[in-house]
Specification:
This protein has about 500 residues and is an alpha+beta fold. It is about 25% helix and about 25% strand. An eight-stranded mixed beta sheet has the order 1-23-19-22-18-17-16-15, with no helix packed on it. A six-stranded mixed beta sheet has the order 14-13-12-24-25-26. The longest helix has about 40 residues. It starts with a helix and ends with a helix. The structure holds fe (ii) ion. It catalyses: a phosphate monoester + H2O = an alcohol + phosphate. This is Purple acid phosphatase. GO terms for molecular function: acid phosphatase activity; transition metal ion binding.
Length: about 500
Amino acid sequence: MLHSKIVNTLQADKGTLTSLVTRMQAMLLNIVLASFVFLSCIRDGSAGITSSFVRSAFPAVDMPVDHEVFAVPKGYNAPQQVHITQGDYDGKAVIISWVTPDEPGPRHVQYGTSKNNYKTSKESTVANYTFYNYKSGYIHHCLVEGLEYSTKYYYRIGSGDCAREFWFETPPKIGPDTPYKFGIIGDLGQTFNSLSTLEHYIESGGQAVLYVGDLSYSDQHDNKDNGLRWDTWGRFAEMSAAYQPWMWNVGNHEVEFLPEVGEVIPFKNYLYRYTTPYLASHSSSPLWYAVRRASAHIIVLSSYSPFVKYTPQYIWLKQELARVDRKKTPWLFVIMHKPLYNSNTAHYMEGEAMRSVFESWFVQYKVDVIFAGHVHAYERSYRYSNIDYNITSGRRYPVPDKSAPIYITIGDGGNLEGLASRYLDPQPEYSAFREASYGHATLEIKNRTHAIYHWYRNDDGVKVPADSLVLHNQYWGYIGRKQNQLIEEVSNIE
Ligand SMILES: [Fe+2]
């Protein structure tokens, strides 16, 4: 009796032990699975990164006017501030611009495909202007058309001993798999940090610059004679801009609306000096336009011009987006100054008005990347959108969206206003990577499906890649997904 009681007790304890072990095993399995899911989330990049990198910055002051990068070319009336931009829709033309300080002209550009053998010449326009007490030099713009694709051209401007020679390369013919390397620079200014950014960009081998606005920051100088620091900036940027096209865009520092000194024409300094091929894309203003280059369609918008429904910029953008042919130019980029997604405390929400007007189009047309500046720091988003909200829906939070663009804020060129180093905490879900350092980026298109993107931090004199990404094309990725879905559906029927 006693024996059987002991056996029953032992069997009961054994059962309890077995169930305990089973429960512990299940618990352990749950912990392992939970850890796996957690680690997978981190690996998949759903958590954004706020870089802890802290740099010791050069002082955020403009280089002195007698710095060698601002040197005036020797000789009477020698051309200076030379820069080029694309001159047509598809890249068979350039606009060559320069300033002569003493008198207008010579107005012609001589050019050819070998050095010192200039068989052709074209005439420029010339104009000058005043801004408060400042009187500009003579600003020349020369449209050189009918060029061959993928060709190196040499050009000469000025005359006699004061003539100066430069060169540029035309892009390849528009085509879906044409490789091309763009640089992206913003808010450059003219400090020692700006010089570091520009020198690093030149080393990177980029073929054309997508510029996201705020050029010289001359309006930050007290004397109101804003043209002086426009001149120094023009001489500084020449080291790159005379040799490859910069696609210009305006920022707030180009507005220069100064009624207190009688200067009430917005963008006056900028518009005299920097021109764009806006007529080629049927735009009514040089402040917004589009160009196609290699395998990319680039749309440039003005954050400081009217853009709501029925305005010229709105109507133009609607038509331009409809003109984009992803079979010819698979890559679609938009450039603007104010970012639409930004989690820095500087300029927070300033892009909200444009986001509410244009974001649904950017999603509908599957824009690959939207580049902006304005915030003096770097930030990259995941693909998020916030287009479901309306005044009654209440759906007001950004959500992951495979059709949405990636937003890149790159106003980190290095101007005299310094870095914007305070970010919102916690980091919003849409923000993938952010860091308050100076730098520039390159975007290297490989073919219709893939491009390699790098953001380079200046790192006090050394170029350091700090954020990198393989971009999958939004259109061809979408088509690929649709095709795969179709194949799957057909094989299920079979
Ligand atoms: Fe700005």
